[in-house]
Amino acid sequence: MKLKIQTKNKIFGFTLVLPTLIFIFTIIVYPLIMLLTMSVYHYESLKNPVFCGLENYIELLKDPIILLVLKNTLIYVGITVLFTLLIGLGMALALNSNIRGRSLFRIILLLPAMLPSVVTILIFFNLFHPRYGLIPYVLSFFITPPSFLVDVNYTLYTCTFVSIWESIPFVMLVLLAGLESLPREIFEAAKIDRASFSQTLKYITLPLLKPTILVALLIVTMDTFMVFSVPYILTQGGPGYASETITIHLYKISLFFFQFGKGAALAVIHTIIVLSISLIYLKILRR
Amino acid sequence: MSEPKKVGRRTFLNYAIAVVATGVIVGAATYLAVPKEVTTTTKTVTTTVTGTPTMTSTMPPKPEKLTLLVSAGAAEPDFYCRDASPLFTMKYGIPIEYTQVPWDGLRDKIVTNLVGETGAFDVMGIYEGWLPQLVEYLEPIDQWLTDEDRKDYVEAALSRSSYEGVQYGLPKYLECRTIIYNKEMFEKYKLSIPKTWSEFIDVAKTLTTDGVYGFLFPAGKAYIPGVFEQFAWTKGGGTLERDEHGFVKKPFKITIDSKESIETMYLLRDFILTWKTTPKDVMVWGHAPLCDEFISERAAMATLWPYQQPLLNDPEKSKVIGKWGIFDLPLDPKGKCSVMSSSIGFCIPKASKNKRWAFEFARFITGPEVQELIARKINLAPVRYSSYEKVKDDPVIGDIIKGWFKANERSWPEGCFIPEWPQIADEVAIGCQTIMAGEKDAEVVCNELAAKIATILKI
Fold first, then answer.
1. pLDDT on residue B2
2. pLDDT of residue B34
3. Which chain A residues are closer than 8 Å to B220 by Cβ?
4. I want to staple B348 with a disulfide (CB 3.0 to 4.6 A). Which of A15, A103, B139, B434 is the partner?
5. Residue B375 CA neighbour count, 13 Å, CB half
6. Interchain proximity B221–A46, CB inside 8 Å
7. Residue A286 contacts B where some CB pair is shorter than 8 Å
């Protein structure tokens, strides 16, 4: 009798969860299985793939271009995440204090998140344009402005600048929410003990905010690893491979060269990299 | 503190084993389920349909509408959408729903619709360079194309929409790239049309003054392979060896590491870095910004496609109305061709539910009446001989049309008509940009490119 009730409860619970499981299977598990399947096939012709085992993976790992685009991606992610976090944290701390016009500043600082990404990128494309861009024009009064969209030494950093600008509002929001949820009593106690701003920040704010920072870091890192629109619209990954990231290379291999198997293999490698970094973050978070 | 760590490690290991086991089972099941042997599809043999099509007896019922996909931002696709399509609707009572996509995004739209077999479009404007990769998803039209029609289409144009002897599309235009120049600037410095490359370089240097560049060419990733190819032909080089009609010879012979091709790379680099007749910015430019610079009198010479003519004569934007002329690139003694042409064909996806009517639509808008109209309205060379005969002696446009038509006849195709061309073009683009940025020497890059192209072509 007891067992029957337990079984009934289990079935009932499973039935409630079933729609979600189907949804997750359809949009996550099934595409992942298809991706893994495609990665072990060679697509000589689009309709007749040939099984090739791990050949795609071996070819990719031997390709020097993959190391180059991976290096570009890691630099891109590193700089974007670092500056997004620093600036986002600074803005969140400023908005958390009792400054005048806090609400207005909050809206203004959230504006980048309200614009569609493509619009933002096109605005910056025009701002950085070598011939009629505002930024080179202003800089020309002081120095000879570099070609932000053409010079191999600058294109990648121009793309990171735009990514940082896009990501800051999200990080700022998350950290602001984290700051507002911290207990006030501790800060009041610190104030009574005459702790300076830097001491409060170092010994109270940052340790308490650590989980929130890690969550924000995790999302921004994963997001930046998957960046495509910024380098594609600004520089198309050029000149040469100067600003080509893994996602652009993946897009080229799959949709330009029609090497879907290789593209799938690269997508799997990319997923493993992002997953590994995410697991590291999660492990730090659990501590 | 140590207990939670143990639990975490065990759980992590359990998850990892479960994932690996699932992957192995799924992989094995998939491998076993999917047949290993590739069944080769039989190649379609060209059949020639004789006689006029019997529309009344063989035509299926009229569809509710036909859908068309073409590029945006140029007078010629606008013409097909806004002027030619209503004429078809008037004649056959079938409305045309057209979608125009900017050139940079057009290929993606075409590929995703074809590979996804959506059937969203009945007719698509497909560039000749993309055709070999997409033929599996396109309907061969030899079954409907009559001998009479076949003979009336300009042969050079019709061949661009065919692959391995099978016709997949009807050409909507055939254009060739030339050099436009500002006549006033030439007169100011008492310059004449250059006939050799050294004269061309001297003219470009003379015309490069404060605020004006002597020569512009598009060096963005999507454009520079074509520019390199055309310039290299004038010197006797190129990426792959071509026959006298400009089609790639088989078996393939790689010529990108030839002396002439390397010379071309140095030429492109020197325009930017040595003589500074061309700004570095061209490396992110396509055709549109180039035309803007020319019509604003910030460039003395530039490369031009005929579809850009309406912009040159636009009274609201152009400062060069009546002040521009065209000439061919110089041809070295060892050079083979100085004119590059490009074509886009109206093709029918296999997934279209209205293939027969889609063909009739494509045939109508590439037909004699509409082609005559496009010649008169936009001054493009028609793709029909019968249309050309009607306009060539027109007192107003006759000379322009004759000029473009004859240039088309002596031109070589931009595309290589091999499925590997997009990958080869990408490598060439990166090589060119690396040289033009001064990062590497041209000889080194060309030798590297030759090796890469050999790997791509498996030779």
1. 47
2. 53
3. 236, 238
4. B139
5. 32
6. no
7. yes
Tokens of A173: 């929001």
Q: Does the distance separating the beta carbons of A47 and B38 come in below 8 Å?
A: no
Q: Where in chain B is the domain with CATH 3.40.190.10?
A: 9-174+342-412, 176-341+417-457
Task: Give me the residue from B115, B289, B430 closest to A241, CB to CB.
Answer: B430
Mean pLDDT confidence for A236-263: 90
- A49-108 residues touching B, CB cutoff 8 A: 50-51
Out of B133, B433, B434, the one facing A258 most closely (by C-beta) is B133
Predicted pLDDT of residue B184: 95
pLDDT for position B46: 34
* pLDDT-above-90 percentage for chain B: 66
Each residue of B236-279: pLDDT tens digit? 999 999 999 899 999 999 999 999 999 999 999 999 999 999 99
Q: Do A239 and B433 touch (CB under 8 A)?
A: yes
Question: What fold, for B9-174+342-412?
Answer: D-Maltodextrin-Binding Protein; domain 2 (3.40.190)
Question: Tokens standing for B372?
Answer: 């005559």
| Phi, psi (rounded to 5 degrees) for B398 | -55, -50
User: What's the average model confidence in pLDDT over B364-377?
Assistant: 93
Q: Can you tell me the distance from the alpha carbon of A220 to that of A169, in angstroms, rounded to the nearest whole number?
A: 11
Assigned CATH class of B176-341+417-457: alpha beta
- Check CB contact of A13 with chain B, cutoff 8 Å: no
Smallest CA-to-CA distance from A172 within A92, A101, A94, A104 is with A92
Query: Cβ distance B235 to B332 under 8 Å?
Result: yes
Q: Which amino acid is at B366?
A: T
Tokens of B383: 């793709």
- Tell me which residue in A36, A46, A130 faces B281 most closely, judged by beta carbons: A130
Which amino acid appears at position B379 of this protein? N
Mutate to test the interface with A, among B10, B131, B284 (most CBs of A within 10 A): B284
Nearest CB to A238; choose among B27, B30, B283: B283
Q: Report chain B residues whose CB lies below 8 A from the CB of A286.
A: 8
